[in-house]
Amino acid sequence: MTTYLEGEDASGGTWTGTGFVVGFETTEGLVPFVVTNKHVLAGATKLTVRFVARGADGQPEQRATQIQMVQFGPHSWAGHPDAAVDVAVFQAAPVLNQMETDGHPALVKWAPASMLLTSAQAEETDALEAVTFIGYPNGLFDTTSYLPIARRGQTATPLSNDYRGYPAFLIDASVFPGSSGSPVLLVDRGGHVDRQGNFNLGSNRIHLLGVLAAVHTRQVDGRVVDLPTKQVAVFDDPIDLGIVYKASAIQETVDIVLAAIGIALADPAPDLA
Question: Which of 19, 42, 126, 150 is deepest in the core (most CB within 10 A)?
């Protein structure tokens, strides 16, 4: 579901991030998109996209497959129309097709758009819900299997509310650079507690809540004493509150691309959270 992204700018500087694939049913068939953040793609003149490799038996191999998108730039991706909403997408099919052509196919299990959390579903959730997010914190991954790292936390603001007026919510979790662009999921197997406190035995839930974009920080002064001149080092200390842009922001960004290429969704998009 996730892909390791590495951007490179004109000066040779590099950075890493996470993306994930969501498939949208359209009048022209299934159209998959890589979802990530604007700040992961902005400024990149080259973008390396890496997936776990798929073997002839359809199973994951102990290696990766990747391609580098050269002449990458603002024309290669689309961002949410609100400059403050850090969501970006680009079409996944050209990347995946090239990997197939090169003889190094990717193992991709994309999320169907039906997994995106709707407003009605959000109203059914509790103020505190366990969440899972998957990605590459600080660029880390399993160097044997090339699989990403899954982490857990909980919602810190209700899913039915818009944090600070944006289509966003907070999670209480340990978030680091490189996790930007990670999918945030609500996954309950075998049952869950509803908003009224009732336990629903055997009721499974799996919803794609949104895309992780940033972490709140505080500035800390590190003071060096007993020196002729006083020096103060100021650094950002994460306070483990991640900012997640909602499913609705993903859909709105995809809608821009589909409209630009003249393709419509097979069915009208539901009212998403």
Answer: 19
Alpha-carbon span 89 to 117, nearest angstrom: 18
Name the β-bridge partners of 35.
Answer: 20, 89
What is the pLDDT at residue 148? 96
Task: List the helix and strand counts (H, then E) for the chain.
Answer: 4, 16
Reading the block at residue 108, the tokens are: 């991709």
Q: What's the pLDDT at 198?
A: 65
Distance CA 185, CA 77 (A): 24
- For residue 272, give the nearest of 148, 121, 51, 152 by alpha carbon: 121
Q: Is 52 exposed, middle or buried (0-12, 13-18, 19+ CB in 10 A)?
A: buried
pLDDT at 197: 64
- Token representation of residue 83: 């400059």
Contact of 4 with 147, CB cutoff 8 Å: no
Give dist(CA 89, CA 31) in Å, integer. Answer: 12
Rounded CA-CA distance 55/105 in Å is 8
What is the pairing mode between strands 46-54 and 88-91? unpaired
Reduce the secondary structure of 208-271 to three states and give it as a string. Answer: EEEEEEEEEEEEEEEEECCCCCCEEEEEEEEEEEEEEEEHHHHHHHHHHHHHHCCCCECCCCCC
In the prediction, which pLDDT does 189 show? 77
CA atoms within 13 A on the CB side of 215: 20
Segments of the chain with pLDDT less than 70: 191-202, 215-239
34: left (phi over 0), alpha (psi -120 to 50) or beta: beta
- Written as six digits, the tokens of 203 are 């009721």
Helix (H, G, I), strand (E, B) or coil at 162: coil
